[in-house]
What does this fold into?
Amino acid sequence: MIKKKYHSLIIILAFVICYIVTIRVLLASDWPKFVGAMLVFIIPVAGKEAIIPLSIYLGINVPIVFTTIILIDVITGLIVVYNWWVVDWLIQKSSFANKYYIKVQNRAEKLSSKKRFVLYGILLLIMMIPIYGGGAGTVAAIGKILNLSNKKTISIIFIGTFTAMIIITTVTLGIISLI
It folds into this structure.
């Protein structure tokens, strides 16, 4: 029997496989360009702010790139939050790291609802603003360190990525229309 906590991961994996097959069919001739753009996206230096303009320049279907980047960010977040036990185990092996880890988690639990709301806003900004080191993995790690639920952490990643993609796509298309 599969553990209950893995059911959502299996559903997500099935969705990803269906998504990839659908994209393969929709992008028959543009498939190599699309795969190249997504591989560049995985490299930390080239984030969303570089891939959307590149995809538009290459003539790749923008909604497909848009949804794929969101999917990649959400999957990255899911990988971090559902495998945090490895990091937790490593932290527990170091008395120095464990002492501060517990201290940070205890302080985070004592935050008022107003301060928690501000924390959510800061994490959304980290997802939205294209800065090196910001992104799904970073937000997921911060969420786990601060004891946020997996559902809230993934929601922040989704909303932040979605909002950033809308802004970047709109600005890119606006600049192209001016040229």
In short: The chain has a mean pLDDT of 81. DSSP finds nine helices and no strands in the chain. The CA atoms of residues 67 and 162 lie 8 Å apart.
